Amino acid sequence: MKILGIETSCDETAVAVVEDGTSILSNVIASQVEIHSRYGGIVPEIASRQHLLASIPILEKALQDANIQLEDIDAIAVTNGPGLAGSLVVGVNLAKSLALASDLPLISVNHLEGHIYANWLDERNTPEFPLLCLIVSGGHTDLVLMTDHGKYEQLGRTRDDAAGEAFDKVARLLGLGYPGGPVIEKATIGIENPRRLPRAWLKGTDDFSFSGLKTATLHMARDLEIIADEPSPAIHKIAAEVAAGFQESVVDVLVTKTCEAAQKCNVRQILLAGGVAANTQLRETMTKRTPVPISIPSPILCTDNAAMIASCGYFRFVAGETSRWDLDVNANLQLV
Ligand code: KG4
Ligand code: ZN
Predict the structure, then answer these.
(1) Is ligand 1 within 6 A of the CB of residue 303?
(2) CATH number of the domain to which 173 belongs
(3) Could you read off the pLDDT of 311-335 as tens digits, one per residue?
């Protein structure tokens, strides 16, 4: 069964074709990162206009790469939230129009659930329930117990900043650029003396907090006189050491708390999901310290894409979900 996935929740216009929820026939992503990096962050109005411009060419390319026509598709899956309202509207209306015009079922997908299903796109590994999922993206840091397809129990979440948001803000204050995760990862390669920064453990809970770490990083940057605009090479090196300390702190907290929760809940597997799961230090540390088998999607499937939406849509469709023609965007949609 072939599902066409459409994803426009943030600043990536993405369309993919996935067979039986696990096999990627095409996965096309148009990133707007260059446009938004001029402003140091995503400008919502620009994002939705870019989605409008990119969506049809990206759809055509996804069908072409999969070597199929729209008639060969069995259902259309689209992200309807959470995300930027103006961006979501473009994808949802494209999906609705295509489904209506081609008489195809229309399945709505929660973006966070989509991130989890990136783990089903590796045909060598089928996740086993019950499992623990750490979703770390630009807007969310959630620890979720998943007992079956579509069955979630939220164990913990961030009480303030999401992990990805903290990467983005810290990169900006250290003058390292945008988007935060990738630029911090690049700047910290080869740094041997990370500056020690604190960890917020929130002991006795499965919750996270990153705003204190962000403030501690800001104070350290001020003490070290790191100036964000046009730093000298020497200052850039110190900024990279601070960034390395920040990254180490985020990774230590995420890994320690996820491993503890996995043991407490007796799960069979841990899954990582979301843009921050593309981070090499997080992937390596998690793999080293995990008490149970771990699944981490390839980096390109951790950040926003439509293959994960198509995969999730497939499992919802075979579970009996039917078209909702009143489907609307929900910018604040929750997983649980
Ligand atoms: O899942 P995602 O692509 O979009 C959302 O749903 O938010 O996640 C984007 C977030 C951004 O905050 C970005 O800085 C972070 O993921 N990110 C990373 C890396 N790549 C992307 N964070 C750390 N290391 C990376 N390599
Ligand atoms: Zn995302």
Answers:
(1) yes
(2) 3.30.420.40
(3) 999 999 999 998 888 999 999 999 9
Residue entry with tokens 């990370």: 194
Question: How much is the pLDDT for 221?
Answer: 95
Tell me whether residue 324 is in a domain.
no
| Ligand 1 near 275 CB (within 6 A) | yes
Q: Which ligand is nearest to the CA of 186?
A: 1
25 by Cβ neighbours in 10 Å (0-12 / 13-18 / 19+) ranks as: buried
* 40 part of a folded domain: yes
**Most distant CA atoms of the chain, gap in Å:** 62
Q: Is any ligand 1 atom within 6 A of the Cβ of residue 113?
A: no
Q: Is 83 in the pocket of ligand 1 (CB under 6 A)?
A: no
What's the CA gap between 236 and 126, in Å, rounded? Answer: 43
pLDDT of residue 234: 87
pLDDT-flagged residues of the chain (< 50): none
Is 187 found in the same domain as 71? no
Helices (H) and strands (E) in the chain, counts: 11, 10
The rounded Å distance from CA 150 to ligand 1 centre is 24
User: How many angstroms is it from 266 CA to the middle of ligand 1?
Assistant: 28
Q: State residue 228's pLDDT score.
A: 66
What residues make up the domain containing 161?
Answer: 129-296
**Total domains present in the chain:** 2
Give per-residue pLDDT as tens, 226-281: 876 777 888 889 999 999 999 999 999 999 999 999 999 999 999 999 999 999 99
Report the alpha-carbon distance of residue 317 to residue 335 in Å, rounded.
18
R_g over Cα of the chain: 20
Ligand nearest to the CA of 162: 1
Mutate which of 135, 303, 305, 308 for ligand 1 pocket (most atoms within 8 A of beta carbon): 303
CB 213 within 8 A of CB 199: yes
| pTM, full prediction | 0.97
- Ligand 2 ion: Cβ-proximal residues, 5 Å cutoff: 137, 304
